Amino acid sequence: MHRARIVFNISKSGQSERFASWLLNKPQTAAVSVNANRLKSSTAAEPFLNGSSSAYVETMYNAWLADPNSVHASWDAFFRNATNGAQPGAAYTPPPNLAPYNKNEVPLTSLVPSSGGMPSISAGSPINEKIIDDHLAVQAIIRSYQARGHLAADVDPLGITTATLPELGMRAPSSELIMRKYFNFDEADMDRVFKLPSTTFIGEKEKALPLREILNRLEQAYCNNIGIEFMFINSLEQCNWIRQRMEPPNVTKMNADQKRLILARLTRSTGFENFLAKKWSSEKRFGLEGCEILIPAMKQVIDVSTKLGVESIIMGMPHRGRLNVLANVCRKPLHQLFTQFAGLEAEDDGSGDVKYHLGTYIERLNRVTNKNIRLAVCANPSHLEAVDPVVQGKTRAEQFYRGDNEGKKVMSILLHGDAAFAGQGVVFETMHLSDLPAYTTHGTIHIVANNQIGFTTDPRHSRSSAYCTDVARVVNAPIFHVNGDNPEAVMHVCNVAAEWRATFHKDVVIDIVSYRRNGHNEVDEPMFTQPLMYQKIRKTKPVLEKYADQLIAEGVVTAEEVKDVKDKYEKICEDAYNQAKQETHIKYKDWLDSPWSGFFEGKDPLKMSATGVVEETLVHIGRRFSSPPPNAAEFEIHKGLLRILKSRMEMVDNRTVDWALAEAMAYGSLLKEGIHVRLSGEDVERGTFSHRHHVLHHQKVDKATYCALAHLYPDQAPYTVCNSSLSEYGVLGFEVGYSVTNPNALVLWEAQFGDFNNVAQCIIDQFISSGQAKWVRQSGIVLLQPHGMEGMGPEHSSARLERFLQMCSDDPDYMPPESPDYEVRQLHDCNWIVANCSTPASYFHILRRQIALPFRKPLILMTPKSLLRHPECKSSFDDMKEGTNFKRVIPEEGPASENPQNVRKLAFCSGRVYYDLLKQRRDKGLEKDIAIARLEQISPFPYDQVKAEIAKYPNAQLVWSQEEHKNMGSWSYIEPRFRTLLQNQKQIRAKSQSKGGSWLSQLFGRDESPQTNAQETETVPRTISYNGRATAASPATGSKAAHNKELRNLLEEFCVL
Ligand SMILES: Cc1ncc(C[n+]2csc(CCOP(=O)(O)OP(=O)(O)O)c2C)c(N)n1
Ligand SMILES: [Mg+2]
């Protein structure tokens, strides 16, 4: 109403340019009065003149005005008749074939005054131009509101985002400029009736309305407390769907029961924060004050979604209001929440996390829908938005395991802060997963708790986009900005968003524009930086008070009822508080977001199953993997691939495997055992190095593909191999989320080159290396990281092995006592496994070991590049068949091992450098002098097996050979662990060292005489020296020549005895 009046005022305020002058470049005319009664007459008189054909009509009309002969005779007749004042319908002569008009449309000519007062007119008459002009203008106004109404909407409870123009007495000058600039109807036009185009639903059943009512309704729909951005959506069906739900008058009206429910929920949301503030006034809790409506909003989304069939909801959210969400949305027992404030010790293992990061998992009855629902809030780090892809991965996984292929049963809700939503790139990466076949979760509901500030920074300094939600436009998600102080508008938007998700299975954003009543946290002073904003906030009544007053005034509730609901909730909190006081310990597992029921029960936590596989299985998988699709002779495979398949088949015949075949056998054998395998990453289907080829493409038929590993056995588990979007942070986060959902799956993410993993550093640091310690949540995710110095320059050489090793939690000064279950015990205690395997068999076993373990640990695996085709990098079936296992250390097995006493150097290494060392040793004829042992697993450090190898070569100097620079690779990790081991093994020592020899002396010469002195052996342990590249800032040189020189030096040094 108000706004319609404003519109009218503007038109009087002297703007002379006609609204539609840009549409019809014709001389303007004076206003004519329209007899509204005429509207009640004919509606279907001119069927071709509907909204969708108006552009065509306009073109025809323009052409006709310019030259009546230039249009079809039927058009000429029509325009002539119409301009001569023909009765509705009478002007019509069948025109060229136009689409039939929609049911809610009326013909334009029916709105032309039929008689009386109508001047006699002829072709080109200004009066008729005006009629058409005005209708086109009204259409354009409607469209303007739909497209840009949000700019003028009253969505800010503080009224600070939209500046006031005092002289006009209105907000949002942009809207005046953009929407109404050309508007020049005057008061007399306000009661003229205009037909409504098919693209609006403001009329409900009316097909035409007076201009005044049109404007009123548009104002109500688009410029009240909801601002909608949706006109960028490419689908007309979806645009109309939104218009249908937002435009009819009174769509946001709620009945008394609904209002009371909102009030009750708002009371809890507000009461919870008040209670915490009262009991723990100086504790940080990142309260929701100012955006308390978030809780009723989430509950509304959940209610509607469960009504529409959703059974499980996975949520991710930041700090703000998190405790409130756990308490009032998830209904986590309040006393458990309150014990988090008590500073109690934990009963279980782990280092824990602050209370506003912890996750939870609840199954409960939704009282509104009377359906059982599962709610999970994922644990998340401080790193804002990092949890987004994790939630998506978890949601996708849950959908997968339930067979919910369309996302009807499982869905995700992501909550965001305004500053983080706009600022964090991972939001964009996550959005871009939303429609990809192997990553979609079939629509996420995003809710922004938009308090118009990020810590101390105003939006104008924290984003360049108009809204904090603009990122969602890239995926055609509708965006609803809503004033957080209008609870009913918020609920309406929630209803529409939930329905949208259930209908179209696409993302949608609810932007709750609100404010932050306190500082960033409860002990911060916001007036330091936002004095004016906070003066305004101080004067703003809490939404609960406003809404309670409103409902009391409406007679929906009484003041006593309001007080009663409030007191009851306070009592609930007080009781829980007293209960919490009885607790003596907290339990981290109370906060687990992904319980694996049945996985740990009845298992020996230190018993690992075998990883070897019967030969028959290896052969079967090998053959399938080396064959074109069975029974599909017409499937045309690329000739190069046929050669690869043939050579694979030959390997199978010869009982050997290369890297790709070993990998396929690992996956295939797990699939056979019912373990789902999912391999995701950039270009993983073929493999960056064109070695994998898990998906064969028909050379003649588009999108016809074949994946052998998905068709190995009729009852196998599903295999997913999927090329991802070009994202590391988003995709790795997604796979982490996928991996934590079910332990009976091997989930792998492959970096294109290991070098790129640091783009996902946050996921690695915050979730993978520390997730179990912080949140008792295990993950068996595998990171495949192509790594190796092969002269490919600084960004294609290093997966930064050193970083992963630096984050290993095992103590370098502690050597675990030996036991029969040494391997599994170490794995149990570590935070993750870091390995750099040198053989296909090791790769096969270590992948299978991920599942053979009775728990789950992340595996960080350096993987090869040139080794994929290295003729020596092959394994025999003998190393993989039943009875074989993963070798954490591969000892020397050549001539040196036959006479160990004579071996002068024992070199330890890991990964591909082994093959360079091997060749060098052979070339130099040092096979009896130098033994090479390989650490296939670097961390946990295989003390037991390293010790045995060292003991075998008592006279050998010990060297660690690596191809990485000295400040990179494994050296900094293995050096202190070797020291610990050697100090613990004083009986093993080289005499040269007992004489004070340093690693330098070992390198440049050694004492041949065998050791005899027992006292010396006890006091002087052996040491290990370094053989590798010097320290450097960059991981690798960009010069091939420099690379080769460095390698030569390394290898020459390796041979120095
Ligand atoms: C990735 C990241 N960078 C910086 C921070 C530090 N930080 C914590 S809260 C915050 C402001 C967040 O603002 P907003 O997203 O609007 O949420 P609000 O606190 O206003 O609810 C910042 C910068 C962080 N937690 N994560
Ligand atoms: Mg904010």
Automatic annotation (TrEMBL):
EC number: 1.2.4.2
Keyword Amino-acid biosynthesis: no
Keyword Magnesium: yes
Annotated coiled-coil segments of the chain: none
Source species, domain of life: Eukaryota
One record GO biological process: glycolytic process
Cofactor(s) of this protein: thiamine diphosphate; Mg(2+)
InterPro entries: 2-oxogl_dehyd_N, 2oxoglutarate_DH_E1, DH_E1, KGD_C_sf, ODO-1/KGD_C, THDP-binding, Transketolase-like_Pyr-bd
Subcellular location: Mitochondrion; Nucleus
Keyword annotations of the record: Calcium, Glycolysis, Isopeptide bond, Magnesium, Metal-binding, Mitochondrion, Nucleus, Oxidoreductase, Thiamine pyrophosphate, Transit peptide, Ubl conjugation
Catalytic activity annotation: N(6)-[(R)-lipoyl]-L-lysyl-[protein] + 2-oxoglutarate + H(+) = N(6)-[(R)-S(8)-succinyldihydrolipoyl]-L-lysyl-[protein] + CO2
Similarity annotation: Belongs to the alpha-ketoglutarate dehydrogenase family.
NCBIfam families linked: 2oxo_dh_E1 (TIGR00239), PRK09404.1 (NF006914), PRK12270.1 (NF008907)
Protein name (record): 2-oxoglutarate dehydrogenase complex component E1
Native source species: Bombyx mori (Silk moth)
Lineage: Eukaryota, Metazoa, Ecdysozoa, Arthropoda, Hexapoda
